[in-house]
Amino acid sequence: MKGPLVDPESVPAWLRPLVEISGKLDSTAFTRFTPPEDELTRAASVLILFGHGERGPDVLLLRRADTLGSHAGQVAFPGGGADPEDDDAVATALREAEEETGVDPSGVRPVAILPELFIPVSKFAVTPVLAHWHAPSPVHAVDPAETAAVARVPLADLADPANRFQVRRPGTTYKGPAFTVNGLFVWGFTAGLLTVLLELGGWAREWDRGDVRDLDVALRDHLLATD
């Protein structure tokens, strides 16, 4: 299932465009990857939680612990693999978000489901769940062994051209969008998804797509600047 979970007119005006368009999208709006027919995938969900803070609309992000075996140190949406006890993708997203960030699910209203997206590296089939944080609660890194930091990042900061560029991996065909914002270095799956959401939500600004940096160098420079 994909598309709105609620009447788009019932969500704040700044979030309405995303809810309205959610049912018209397919995976190609976000990624070029499709699950191989002969390969098993694992179901997962992420919670794309939009709130409204002092500086306008924002989104909840976390930085994974540097000691994790996969995607160590990367910035991500709260989320993870589905458990047998989860009723659906929404339940997975809410459970994972609570476990990772301590967010109170009672203050979160799921409003739309985006198309399932395949991540080749981990072989996850990820369902993004859009939600409105109508009653924000305190958040923090619940388990430092899994989560290093949690932050509400204003969409205006993500859209700021000064915080945007592209990264590439020398020796590979990979090139994709990246952000440095609020002490976070965002790239990969999360940056790609944010890039599309900024466009669809009407928050995007023109930025220099010709600014392409080697991933390792950009990450090193970021770490030096934030030490």
From TrEMBL:
InterPro entries per UniProt: CoAse, NUDIX_hydrolase-like_dom_sf, NUDIX_hydrolase_dom
Domain Nudix hydrolase: 39-175
Keyword annotations: Hydrolase, Magnesium, Manganese, Metal-binding
Listed Pfam families: NUDIX
Keyword Chaperone: no
Keyword Metal-binding: yes
GO-annotated molecular function: coenzyme A diphosphatase activity; metal ion binding
Cofactor: Mg(2+); Mn(2+)
Top-level taxon: Bacteria
SUPFAM superfamilies referenced in this protein's UniProt entry, alphabetically: Nudix (SSF55811)
PANTHER family with a match to the protein in the record: MITOCHONDRIAL COENZYME A DIPHOSPHATASE NUDT8, NUDIX HYDROLASE
Name the record gives this protein: ADP-ribose pyrophosphatase
Species name: Amycolatopsis methanolica 239
Classification of source organism: Bacteria, Bacillati, Actinomycetota, Actinomycetes, Pseudonocardiales
